[in-house]
Amino acid sequence: SRCFPVPPPPPPPADPIIRDPCVPSPCGPYSQCRDIGGSPSCSCLPEYTGTPPNCRPECVISAECASNLACMREKCRDPCPGSCGAGAQCSVINHTPICTCPEGFTGDPFTNCFPKPPDVEPVQASDPCNPSPCGPNAQCADGVCTCLPEFQGDPYS
Q: What whole-number distance in Å separates Cα of residue 123 and Cα of residue 102?
């Protein structure tokens, strides 16, 4: 065998390429991925329900909430705060706030309820002939007494 050059030493082993198992995330929407010993570990984000890859918000439409709640910013919430005017009462029917003025109050329940004014009794026009100021056998017209036909004398006594 003849002489030949000594081969160069092999290059030192390159650092293995560390691949992040969470890039791209295998977990689906509304989820978070953690690298646990080189394997992805998926969980739903706080405020979201379900199991990855099917994490979802509490609601998307109000029909997904109880009838006395409405879907607001992906949460089932009471729709009353801020819906009605001053002094109004709010109830929720089929996810919708209903504003009313309480008993004894009036006004626009979406702006302001105020106490109802007391019912004013209509003033009875006074009748000068009731009770009659006239004596027997006399008649009254506009507070003036006259003797009936066939009678004479003082119509007031």
A: 29
C-alpha 95/C-alpha 86 separation (Å) is 21
How many independent structural domains does the chain possess? 2
- Kindly give the confidence (pLDDT) of every residue in the chain, 157 residues in length, as a single tens digit, with 9 standing for 90 and above: 688 888 888 887 776 677 899 999 999 999 999 999 999 999 999 989 999 999 999 999 999 999 999 999 999 999 999 999 999 999 999 999 999 999 999 999 999 999 999 877 777 678 899 899 999 999 999 999 999 999 999 999 8
Whether residue 68 is found in the same domain as residue 105: yes
Name which of 68, 84, 86 is nearest 76 in CA terms: 68
Residue 101: which domain range? 62-115
Distances (CA, A) of 76 to 32, 33, 85: 23, 27, 23
pTM over 0.90: no
Number of H helices, E strands in the chain: 0, 12
Q: Which amino acid is at 38?
A: G
Over its C-alpha atoms, the chain yields an Rg (Å, rounded) of 46
